[in-house]
């Protein structure tokens, strides 16, 4: 559990909050590049860390992220005219470039220099791997982008699944770093005899109460969850939390799986998740009837159906399976044991539990168990880093060390008595190919 | 009128409020038995006294009422798996029985005894007369159920009409104990010459300003409203308020009518009403064109049309005739005098006035008249009892005396000069049959 | 910009606020006469200056405006029975006349005189020019109605276009007294060569950064915006702000145009606008493809499509082109330059910018320019008058001087060096016909 004070501190991310300040030290994903399909395309409303922003692409193709309200009299730039390398408020024609400079003020006399005194809040943006990244922090020169492998691959090898979550970002992160729920929420109905012996999934459903080892790292926190495997071997599931809101779940085989999930706060009670996986290479040990979010080409029918995007502040990437329809829970399927939750789609199962906790869960009411050791450790690191920044201006983990993000997660069999940290060092390195892994590792 | 302080005190019923504490001394109706149709059926969201609860029926058919959020990490039990004599959170498989014991914690190591340290908030439930009753109070051993006659009849003799009201519970109660409005809101358009002479309704519409006698009782408050009847006789309408939220309106003939209405707060601004009448025996003096809520077999087309239930917190038993459609008021019918309000259905008429007062009416703005003497007295009793409990731990009326609820209400002709209290004692007794009453009393 | 304190003071208009008190010194338009089509017609919910009121027309055809909640127990008069020269609450039949007197209290004994002690809040109403005017202020005898010319013409010469705006009233007023936006939001796509030389519009689009002259007046504030016209001439656009919320924009030719727009606060974040123009005589210099709000006979297809009225507090005169559909912005039209905003209808363009500022715009964030001189001056006058009333009981401008409203606005060509105030005195006088004006002035 958390005290009320700590729960507030860790959850709230608006301007001026300690956790909001921590997140603003990093580059954060703002939207998908393809949401701004070309120069001078339609602007997009973006809610980010509690701020209302308008994203646009200028005539040169550069992305701008500007305050919603025109600095002049407050009309929204959403209705703005793009073109001529800027965005122009339709109220009086004031035009701003992606750096917030007022480059035209046509309703003022020609001799006026007032436009040089007016600046709009904009945040610098760069694009990489299908994402528009932005830096909302205090530095004049932003830090480097994090070395997130999946985001640095050639764009045609990356699959991104964006999804809107109606809860605080931490509830989503905690669901992802919580390997214990996998054997229940997702695979609780699968019996060991249903699965081919020797596969990861077989070990998972044979022992649903694994033990855990958790260590702090330069980039955040890492856990290994372990349980018995074939004689003489232990099955390890190794996964990461990366500052400030990234997770690398243990899907697929360690050394082979390239994945990163970002849980970006829109505001305190809404989150945009970006699941990023390698196209055609991220097979996991999951049985086919439990579709995963992932490669849109390989698993065309495994995606949660989505509502059409709207232009609203919370209109992007809304799953059609959501709280308003109880996630289409099928009570008969749940009851007869065909599926543990009765909810189709892994991602919907996660959202059902996370969102049902409410906008911000009151963590004074929790009773944490030994399986929550990773959750506990990550909270402690986040709170510690937010306080260190607020009180002693300590730069948070990884901000100036992009290379610490070069990690991989996944499952692996290690001999009994092996040192899980030392002996997986190479497999955990990003940007290293292990073509043999996919064959060696026991997939279902 | 009430002071702002008294109005807050009497209306608010959440955990820890004085009126909430008073209500928690009693058993309260939580939902209908048939909403949980069988062992291990689908759970139901129940909002009760400002608490979010999940109702379920276990494998043995026993009803459980458990806190919405799993004590572990807060996922809602609404998505829980029923079966094996409990409800199991789908997040990590923790299973609880109807008493709140954690009976399985499958993601913890076998040797862990942590499950014995975790308890969920549950409220004991019993079923009687088609209702699930629950006790949300502080006692280890709850008090007895109240001896409410209609709730103790064989179930096939009881008709229950549940209905959701969008206002504070007290506005609904006050509408029910207010016999004065009957001659206007419900029967204002009926002229004495429209009704057969000698019937109750004839006297009612002939004199719309009766006099009142009000007395405090062991169970709450009783009134007799009286007006001239046939020569030498007085027509008395005798009705009850029973602690903490029950009303017995004067429908039908005293000694014959068996009725109890419960106005159960869902939260401070939403109420669930349960109207309970005897099937096939509760004819009243009301004219046919003004259908009443009541016996669903005798009056199949007299019920307010209902929207389909949803699984939402406020999705149960919603009238289709409601504020969003102005209660389908027909202004021409209202204007031409065919009906006083222009609103079809007695129950919709009541809801129109009660709900139009707003969620919680500001009673500092009232101007009470002599016809409000019952309303005034009931408020005083409720406030007194809530304060006595809060300040001196005085057990509220009837909590430990179930027999005080054994009352009947209704209309009766008494000779002029009769003692209305003394002379109706026998007719007011529950569980006594007076087969002659239906014939003796002047029905329309 | 305004300080937070001034912004609150100038925007909020509920009972007891300084600006609310200022507005209550004046007669204010409450609704259209035709919304109450005849004696004893259906009542109408009216939200006005933050108060919920029920408008009705009594048997003699007189308009009443009564508090929503019956003084007795709070049921809404919306469900009340009209007739017998009053409105009767359907709960207990209490009947009130348009002056708030309780004229019948039928559920009290005949001998009771309680009805003489009960009074409902009502506001006196008069009808003129298609509007129902009401006085919500403290005087026993209200001041005279303002001499608003367009409201005093024969009713068949007046066109009124009512329209609901989802923002604070001041945002709407500021949009109207801001002539600078015309050349951008409305005519930004029109090039000088598109328009016949010598017309007002030609001068407007040829010079989009006019200069301004602003003067305080007895009724409020007047501006003249000026720019070069044909050789030796200056094109002046002269317009007025009239206390407390009226605007006379410079549409059409000065001396010919008869117009008044009222921006009546429903509450702090919703406004009802009444645009009033002379039927068949208010041609302006606007090109046909940009329809204006105005004369419904001459420009039948120039009106913003409206949603059907509902009986809700905010259900009257809602444009179908609104924030929920992004004002049907057509990005291609905006981009290709066919229209500056891509939004059809002048009125929708105004609403898009005003409403996108939010319910109450935070004016601490503004950067005002020289083109905002009228906005600045009007705010100062409003703040000054509200403070003078609050602190020194100074009667606000025009309250007791109805004749100060006798003004006209519009465009005019004056010789270079002319005194725009002195030399337009006659043309600015209301109630004076200048039949030659329509021909003399350069229409497009």
Automatic annotation (TrEMBL), chains A, B, C:
Keywords of the record: 2Fe-2S, Iron, Iron-sulfur, Metal-binding, Oxidoreductase
The keyword Iron appears for this protein: yes
Domain of life: Bacteria
Domain Rieske: 27-134
SUPFAM superfamilies: Bet v1-like, ISP domain
Presence of keyword Iron-sulfur: yes
Protein name from the UniProt record: Rieske 2Fe-2S domain-containing protein
Organism, as annotated: Alicyclobacillus dauci
